[in-house]
Design brief:
This protein is mainly α and 321 residues long. The chain has 14 helices and 2 strands. It has one domain. The longest helix is centred in the first third of the chain and has 28 residues. The radius of gyration is 20 Å and the shape is globular.
């Protein structure tokens, strides 16, 4: 984990340092460095902050908190993510209106229980563009919208917690924009438009990678989208719920496992969210055997390509009325 953290942080920051130094004089190098930084950003999101905010990076809570701030360093917000992901997504996986990962703009439909619009029939075609700009949404509007919504839902209920979190969020985002965009605009001999385009390319790479990895674990034909009963209670026990709504992919790829923080073992992650991802591969036989013993499903796709194809088919199915 330490080696991965150093590599991913370096992959994100070193290109930005070079861009801010004013040494870059050609447009291909400009775009290459921003894209490399985007790969590092995705690596931090999936392989460093994800474990840290779950509290599974280290047994030391201070280290987890510190490395959780790496999410703030890439323009997002650790507080908002913890509520969205740790609380809502992991508790109410694939439950419409409760799992915040399913809540999307009207032109996207991620649940068979969500309202249908005619435009959804094309979502399997245009979805990829919106996956690409997903992290741009995080660093601009989404974090602020969700922060207010979570306060209205009863989170952030300590005295002045919302106000302090809002001020902190603004400060972190200003810091991020300063070194990721403003400094290169000042230091490099290119128009602001070209530098902005390269910055957008960085986020498109990050958004595409992160969105695909998280979406192909849940928005799949084989996964269930349960609803609570009339009393608002989830009928399955929590473990059965996680097994039925989650899917693994590419279990034999050691390289992919390292690059995406073990998130190809989403089942293991969802039933053991407080375990560091470096252990998922060793736990998979225990988890799969336990699922079989208790008659619960254990979903897995043999490759990432197969998972993306099934995810695309699921999006098309959800697009049908």
């Amino acid at each position: 984990m330490v080696v991965k953290t150093v590599i991913m942080l370096a992959l994100f920051f070193v290109p930005l340092v070079l861009l801010s130094s004013g040494m870059v004089t050609t447009k291909p190098v400009l775009f290459l460095l921003y894209i490399l930084s985007g790969l590092g950003m995705a690596g931090i999101g999936m392989g460093v902050m994800h474990d840290a905010i779950h509290g599974s990076y280290s047994k030391n809570k201070k280290i987890n908190t510190l490395l959780g701030y790496s999410f703030n360093l890439i323009g997002a917000n650790a507080t908002v993510w913890k509520i969205q992901h740790n609380v809502l997504h992991h508790t109410y996986t694939n439950i419409d209106h409760a799992d915040d990962d399913l809540n999307a703009p009207f032109f996207l439909r991620f649940s068979p229980h969500a309202k249908h619009y005619w435009v959804h029939q094309f979502q399997h075609i245009y979805i990829w563009f919106f996956y690409g700009i997903s992290t741009l949404s995080w660093i601009t509007t989404k974090d602020f919208v969700r922060l207010k919504r979570y306060r209205d839902m009863g989170f952030l209920d300590k005295k002045n917690e919302y106000e302090k979190t809002l001020v902190s969020m603004i400060a972190w985002k200003l810091l991020y924009y300063s070194y990721a965009l403003i400094l290169p605009m000042i230091m490099l001999p290119f128009s602001w438009g070209i530098i902005l385009l390269a910055f957008l390319a960085m986020h498109f790479v990050t958004g595409m990678l992160v969105s695909i990895v998280f979406q192909i674990a849940h928005i799949m034909p084989i996964n269930e989208f349960p609803l609570p009963n009339e009393d608002g209670v989830i009928n399955d026990n929590w473990y059965a719920h996680q097994f039925s709504t989650t899917s693994n992919f590419s279990p034999d790829s050691k390289l992919l496992f390292w690059l995406i923080g073990g998130l190809n073992y989403q089942v293991e992650h969802h039933v053991l969210p407080d375990v560091c991802h470096v252990h998922y591969k060793s736990l998979t036989k225990i988890v799969s055997d336990t699922a079989k013993e208790y008659g619960m499903p254990y979903h897995v796709k043999k490759s990432m390509g197969h998972a993306i194809w099934d995810h695309t088919k699921m999006l098309r199915t959800l697009g049908e009325k």
